[in-house]
Amino acid sequence: MTGVTWVRRHSDAAWSPCHLWQCWYWLPSTALVEPILELFQVACSSLEALAVLLEPPSLGSQPFGQRLEHALATWIEVLFAPGYQLAAFLVQPFWRALGTLLVARAVARLALFPFSEVQHYMPEHFDETSEWVVGQLLASANLRFGSRLARWMDFLMFHGDSHQIEHHLWPAMSFVRYSQAAEVVRRTCAEAGLPYHEVSYWEGYRKIWQQVREHSEPVPTGIDSRPPSRDRPAGERKRRRPEETSSSDEDC
């Protein structure tokens, strides 16, 4: 892997001349090229699990039982996971099974793009001096659905993936509690004057398109446009060094 992605959507990603054209190819790349690359990576992982299993025992190496357990877990996931479905290749012609798998992954990518992408990146709302909780509120957003059917589909099929704010605030919380937590967080934000971002499904696509367009050009030399990290612990802020404070006081 070269470390360069086909679609550059964030300033901390490496730039390549191909990104000048990403506004034209980002949807085909997202729907077809990236799923194919993922399948190649899964195939490499499966072969690597077999290779590790065949290695001779040596000092410091994992016991054979652990290697076998890891290999079996990898192969079972590849065989039966909905994203790979290797079992379908055993009962169908190869090209039919491959075509079905690629079409399914492409449709899933296009349908779930706002779910999996846009609510994780809201760089226009970053604030370098924010507390940790406020930083999560600034950098996250929930998808807003207009119908009860869409909300139930999100709950049953995607396990409440639209509630990214609550997921970032409480990573260990069960998804069945997200809707209750959302009411508490929304009410608290309204009382404290804190932001609570919600975007519609198509607004999520619009934000992704803006990111693709804005980051197609290279960053000028000497300019660091990377957004500050939102994982900064609570209470950590940029402060002046003691020598800077003393020198400024002397100037006064």
UniProtKB/TrEMBL annotation:
<feature type="region of interest" description="Disordered">
    <location>
        <begin position="216"/>
        <end position="252"/>
    </location>
</feature>
<dbReference type="GO" id="GO:0016717">
    <property type="term" value="F:oxidoreductase activity, acting on paired donors, with oxidation of a pair of donors resulting in the reduction of molecular oxygen to two molecules of water"/>
</dbReference>
<protein>
    <recommendedName>
        <fullName>Fatty acid desaturase domain-containing protein</fullName>
    </recommendedName>
</protein>
<dbReference type="InterPro" id="IPR012171">
    <property type="entry name" value="Fatty_acid_desaturase"/>
</dbReference>
<feature type="domain" description="Fatty acid desaturase">
    <location>
        <begin position="60"/>
        <end position="199"/>
    </location>
</feature>
<dbReference type="GO" id="GO:0008610">
    <property type="term" value="P:lipid biosynthetic process"/>
</dbReference>
<dbReference type="Pfam" id="PF00487">
    <property type="entry name" value="FA_desaturase"/>
</dbReference>
<feature type="compositionally biased region" description="Basic and acidic residues">
    <location>
        <begin position="227"/>
        <end position="244"/>
    </location>
</feature>
<dbReference type="GO" id="GO:0016020">
    <property type="term" value="C:membrane"/>
</dbReference>
<dbReference type="InterPro" id="IPR005804">
    <property type="entry name" value="FA_desaturase_dom"/>
</dbReference>
